[in-house]
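Please fill in the sequence for the structure shown.

STRUCTURE ENCODING:
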């Protein structure tokens, strides 16, 4: 009987210890569900190499811009990004700009403050590559911005008072804004 008495407290301790594990599993599952249900306009992506982060924001009622985002780098450097789908061959053409003038700008001024532009690709858990969707669609798991790192390393925003950690070309989803 003594052995039986010891088993019950031991079993109670073991069962009690499972509560944090069950709670943690629930949090992980809830986070995964939140990410799975996150629309692209609220998605947050991170780059492991530099710690850089891409935060999408709702675009609003723009007739040409389909997505709006920011690339946040170290030393408080923020690049403003937009995506416009091309008309001839449908592609999400992204552009990252740094310290652009406010208001109406000329094409020359816009070109001078644009640090990177290119097609933005996505990838899912199976490695299937696709194109960045417009707003209102579930956010993809991974973003691929070809040649982003090498281009930004050569930009005027790098070094000196600018950023010092160059991002890679691949950003993984890390959350969803509320």
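FILLED IN BY: designer on duty
SEQUENCE:
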């Amino acid at each position: 009987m003594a052995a039986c008495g010891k088993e019950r407290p031991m079993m109670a301790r073991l069962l009690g210890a499972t509560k944090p594990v069950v709670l943690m599993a629930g949090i992980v599952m809830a986070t995964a569900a939140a990410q799975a249900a996150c629309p692209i306009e609220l998605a947050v992506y991170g780059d492991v190499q530099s710690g850089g982060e891409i935060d999408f924001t709702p675009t609003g009622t723009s007739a040409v811009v389909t997505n709006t985002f920011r690339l946040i780098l170290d030393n408080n450097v923020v690049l403003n990004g937009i995506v416009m789908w091309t008309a001839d061959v449908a592609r999400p053409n992204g552009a990252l700009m740094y310290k652009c003038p406010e208001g109406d700008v000329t094409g020359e001024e816009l070109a001078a403050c644009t640090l990177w532009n290119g097609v933005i690709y996505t990838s899912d858990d199976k490695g299937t590559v696709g194109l960045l969707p417009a707003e209102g669609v579930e956010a993809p798991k991974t973003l691929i911005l070809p040649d982003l790192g090498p281009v930004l390393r050569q930009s005027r925003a790098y070094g000196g008072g600018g950023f010092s950690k160059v991002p890679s070309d691949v950003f993984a989803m890390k959350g969803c804004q509320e």
